[in-house]
Amino acid sequence: MIYGQEREIKSIDQFANGRFVRIVDLDAGKSALSRFCALGLIPGTMVQVLTKGNGPVRLKFRDTEVVIGRKSAEKIKVQPVEDNV
Amino acid sequence: MKTPKSKITIALTGNPNSGKTTLFNALTGSRQHVGNYPGITVEKKEGYFETAQHVLHFVDLPGTYSLTAYSQEELVARNYMIREKPDLVVDVVNSASLERNLYLALQILELGAPLILALNMMDEVRKKGMTLDTLLLEQRMGCRVVETVARQGKGKQELIETIISLRTRKDERRSPLRISYGPDLDPVLNEMAAIIQETGFMTDTYPARWLALKYLESDEQIISEGRERSLETSNRLEGAANDVAEHCMKTLKTYPEAIIADYRYGFISSLLKDVVTRDQQRQRIEMSDQVDKFLTHRMLGPLFMIFVLYMVYSLTFLVGDIPLSLIEDFFGWLGDAVRAVMPDGLLQSLLASGIIDGVGAVLSFVPLLMIIFFCIAFLEDSGYMARVAYMLDRVFSYFGLHGCSIMPFIVSGGIAGGCAVPGIMAARTLRSPREKLATILTAPFMTCGAKLPVFLLLAAIFFPANQALALFMITVLAWASALLVSKLLRSTIIRGPATPFVMELPPYRLPTLRGLMIHTWERTWQYIKKAGTIILAISILIWAAMTFPQLPEERLAYYDSQSVILEGDLASLPGDSDVNEKMDEILSQREQIEFSLAGEQLAYSYAGRTGTFLEPVSSWAGFDWRINIALVGGFAAKEVIISTLGTAYSLGAVDEDDPVSLAGRIQQDPDWDTKRAVSLIIFVMLYAPCFVAVVAIARESGSWKWAGFAMVFNTVFAFGFSTAVYQTLKFFI
Q1: Which residues pair with B47 in a beta bridge?
Q2: What gap in Å lies between CA B366 and CA B13, rounded to an integer?
Q3: Sheet arrangement for strand A76-80
Q4: Contact in structure between B682 and B632 (CB atoms under 8 Å)
Q5: Which end of chain B has fewer CB within 10 Å, C or N?
Q6: In A40-83, which residue ranges form alpha helices assigned H by DSSP?
Q7: Across the strands, what pairs with B418?
Q8: What is the CATH superfamily name and number for domain A10-80?
Q9: Percent of chain A at pLDDT exceeding 70
């Protein structure tokens, strides 16, 4: 495992099992963007990814749990946060 | 002397899952009225609370996360606050996720609406080991804050007192909250607000800065309204908004909307600094999360889900059977009483066969429906329904639908006992026109509360040992049809890419009995109202179609003469030992004559002629003219199928001394067998939605074309399917 590569920006669906990530960018259309903003999924937000396996992506942030379809989740670009859980 | 009470109108708003409806129920109890907002199908709930001097009129606005133009619900909530100008707005927030919930509160303050913040679910906050400094929050927000636990009715009194005290000091006109949106947006916002002020552009309705913000967010509704008001000013504002959007894209690589959200959340964190304290020692894993590990487990989750849905049926049959037979008996007795008391004739026939049999058949299913509605309310209020949507999204997206399609499907009767009309309306939360259309067109396949009686009846007769299993299989078949047809539609006439699925998973909560009761009663009452109005009218109409025209005189005279002969035979019987045998023979002959009279009468009536006309084709699927009549009636409302069959049989087999229910009659009829029952179940499940649902489809899809499509396509599909099954079963049964 090369640690330098882990800090690369990836879409949030690439993470799972309780990993903490921080949103860097939203590559979304108007409708999805407006929904993400209303829920507080904006750049800078720290998110815990609770997904296990395939299907929709399950996220926890701002004391709320939200599920997002995998296609939409691909639009959320994140960076992993160093493990300090 | 009584002085008239002063009326205070209060809008209740809040995020979905914030306990808004629970608070509304706690405040207004049963004094509620459910209607629609004019022109659209979003539900409008109103309720009242009276004190010595005041009448508090609560309007429960749809749950929303924001006040953008994202969905119909958000538009309704926003427009109500702006246009109807309620005296007060109570924003119900889930205190356990205060940060996210305050996002809506800020937008209400930016509108300048008079706000009270109800910090709901304070019990959960304490359980999580968090504390909130309410007074500090109140100071910072500049509005009154009341702590509540809606489930237990706590804080209700304080909220009411706060409402009244704020109302009596009405001089307090607040100015809209002003949030800074940073060096990139603030200058433009000021400039745009100045243009708006100068030209008086819609300032009678909206605060200037709020309007400027909406232009920056490129809010479709506001911009189109603006263009109508003044194309010139609107163009200037759009120009300014576009320029800044381009600038943001170039320098910050982001959209104005994201910047606005960012500053709002920044503002919220500054509001909440020192307001929320978390007990670090008590970072324990919550119960809800523990439970969820099991309930949404990859393997166990779906198994448990199927188990839950199956339990809903089992419970319904176990408990519902008792009141069901009681009500059936009552209407059977009532019909006989009318037949006994009133002289023979058209009026007696109308009352007994048209009205009592028809409405009785419909009402006897009320207990079953109540149990099912209760179960659905429990699943919804406990938070489990959201998990079902979560688990099913993968499957749904495969069929070209949306995880949120689960709601329309379930409301329509995905768990047997819904109604396609609210189900079709529930599809409006779907933003994608294509998924929405596919959902609307296939949701009516589900087992609605009106089709359910048909299935219950047939299952009880033909699968007496396996009723629950039969009903379960019917539901599975309905789902399979809906999914496959939507896959078909989405890959043919409504082709196109998928749209985002975003949904909150609320923590598990034990629903309140009061809330469950209110939900159950609301849905049941809607069904009863329908039974009392549309269905009564249709029962009478169908009775008339089955009674007129009456048989020609010579036929009636023929039957009369036949029975006179038998009466004579009966009178001339000798008084010896053979008498019983002989009498039985004559009596059965007389019964035979009555049967054929009734049969001939019905076949001669308008309904009989229609049914007979269709019989050559419908017999491919095993349906005779009686079933045809019932199915045609069922287009008006599916509830009518049973009552029409009831009427058809009570007219067709006059046997007043032995009042057997419709079930009994079908059981005795040699024409009825399992293959016909299965074929009929399939046809009823899939054929044209009822008239009310068709109207709803036209409204929700925005075109009568789709409504017409639903009627024709579904009927053809249903008939093809039933015929195939019937013809196949012929080889085996």
Answers
A1: B32, B58
A2: 33
A3: A10-11, A76-80, A19-26, A46-49, A57-61, A64-68, B502-504
A4: no
A5: N
A6: 70-73
A7: B448
A8: Ferrous iron transport protein A (FeoA) (2.30.30.90)
A9: 88
B375 touches chain A (CB under 8 A): no
Q: Do A68 and B498 touch (CB under 8 A)?
A: no
**pLDDT number for residue B535:** 65
Confidence band for B169, pLDDT divided at 50, 70 and 90: low
Greatest extent of chain B over all pairs of C-alpha atoms, in Å: 115
Angle between helices B467-490 and B384-398 (to 10 degrees): 50
pLDDT at residue B362 tops 70: no
Question: Which of A45, A54, A66 lies nearest to residue B502, judging by beta carbons?
Answer: A66
User: A23, A63, A70, A77: best mutation site toward chain B, by most B Cβ within 10 Å?
Assistant: A63
Model confidence at A79, pLDDT cuts 50, 70, 90, reads very high
Q: Above 80 in pLDDT, residue B509?
A: yes
Which residue of chain B comes nearest to A25, CA vs CA? B254
Contact across the interface for A35 and B261, Cβ inside 8 Å: no
Q: Which residue has the higher pLDDT, B547 or B121?
A: B121
DSSP states of B427-473: GGG---HHHHHHHHHHGGGS-BTTTHHHHHHHHHHH-GGGHHHHHHH
Interface test with A, best of B219, B268, B502, B503 (most A CBs within 10 A): B502
Of these ranges, A28-32, B224-228, B515-519, B587-591, the one predicted with the greatest mean pLDDT is B224-228
Which residues in chain A are closer than 8 Å to B254, comparing Cβ atoms?
25-26, 43
Determine what percent of chain B falls in helix, strand and coil, rounding each to the nearest 5: 70, 10, 25
Contacts of B390 in chain A (CB under 8 A): 56, 58, 67
Average pLDDT on B144-168 reads 90
Go through B666-686 and write b for each residue having 16 or more CB atoms within 10 A of its CB, e for each that does not: beeeeebeebbbbbbbbbbbb
Q: What are phi and psi of B92, to 5 degrees?
A: -90, 120
Nearest to B454 by CA among B442, B441, B471: B471
Which is nearest to B403 in space by CA: B440, B443, B439? B439
Complex prediction ipTM: 0.89
Terminal-residue alpha carbon distance, chain B: 80
What does the alpha-carbon distance between residue B203 and residue B209 come to, in Å, rounded to a whole number?
Answer: 10
For residue B555, what are its two tokens?
């036929």
Per-residue confidence at B189, pLDDT binned at 50, 70, 90? very high
Chain-wide mean pLDDT for chain B? 84
Min Cα separation A18/chain B (Å): 12
Domains of chain A by residue range: 10-80
Reading phi first (left if > 0) and then psi (alpha if -120 to 50, else beta), residue B153 is in: left
Q: Which residue of B has its CA nearest to A75?
A: B500
- pLDDT bin (cut points 50, 70, 90) of residue B589 is confident
CA distance B117 to B147: 8
Question: Which residues of chain A does B260 touch, with a Cβ-Cβ cutoff of 8 Å?
Answer: 37
How far apart are the C-alpha atoms of B308 and B20, rounded to whole Å?
27
Contact B258 A39 (CB under 8 A): no
User: Can you list the positions of beta strands (E) in B456-548?
Assistant: 502-504
Range from B142-146, B486-490, B601-605 carrying the lowest mean pLDDT = B601-605
With a cut of 60, say whether residue B642 has pLDDT above it.
yes
pLDDT surpasses 50 at A1: no
8 Å CB contact between B455 and B423: no
* A28, A44, A72 ranked by CB distance to B262: nearest: A44
Q: Does B505 touch chain A (CB under 8 A)?
A: yes
> Which residues in chain A have their CB less than 8 angstroms from residue B507's CB?
65
| Angstrom distance (rounded) from CA B216 to CA B195 | 14
Contact yes or no for B682/B726 (Cβ under 8 A): no
